[in-house]
Amino acid sequence: MNNEEEIITRCQKGDQDALREIFDRYHKKVYRIAYGVVREREDALEIVQDVFVKLYRSIKDFKGRSNFYTYLYRIAINTAIDHSRTKKLSYPTLKDEERDLELSNGFEKRPDRILMQKELEEKVNLAMGRLPPEQKAALILKEIEGLSYHEIAESMGCSIGTVMSRLHYGRKRLRELLKGYLESP
Question: 66, 129, 163, 168 - which has most CB atoms within 10 Å?
């Protein structure tokens, strides 16, 4: 039994310390997913709490047929999508202190390049905010979390074909929304 399996078994038996270990391991990834869907720091933090409460209540149902992180991501995606639907959120731009989802670490130190990068990040952020939650979630899981199509399908509770469709239409919509910005002058 590996360390993660041991922690999950302990958590299934009601061990609070095991839940804390799971939280410590995964809360940043859950936050990135939540923030990517709802685009609001406070809402994302609320979702993280909800996800781990749901996990604690449902961990006994986890049978190990899929990877644990796939199980957790599915809870996170569903919670974030449900939250965004119920709140019908507007999607603000990233604030400087909320740069967890930056597109890069700064590709150059020249002021003109930094300004261009920040402008691009803001445009992408606004465009992502205009995507349907399922497309946004699929893009986050693929492009930010680096999951495979199979892992995304398991996480989102849909077929690989549906994942491919969501990614295709999400990318297509992003290109449309960013078309004027990305074209050469």
Answer: 163
Note the helical H segments in the chain. Answer: 3-12, 16-38, 41-58, 68-87, 111-129, 133-139, 149-156, 160-182
Helix (H, G, I), strand (E, B), or coil: what is residue 15? coil
The pair of three-digit structure tokens given for residue 105, joined into one six-digit string: 């670490």
User: 3-class DSSP state for residue 141?
Assistant: helix
The predicted structure's pLDDT at residue 118: 75
165's CB contacts (< 8 A; 6+ apart) are: none
Tell me how far apart the alpha carbons of residues 97 and 55 are, in angstroms, rounded to a whole number: 28
Q: For residue 176, give both structure tokens.
A: 């449309």
80 within 8 A of 39, measured Cβ to Cβ: no
Give the largest CA-CA distance in the chain. Answer: 62
Choice among 21-25, 54-58, 113-117 with the minimum mean pLDDT: 113-117
Give the pair of three-digit tokens for residue 44.
């994302």
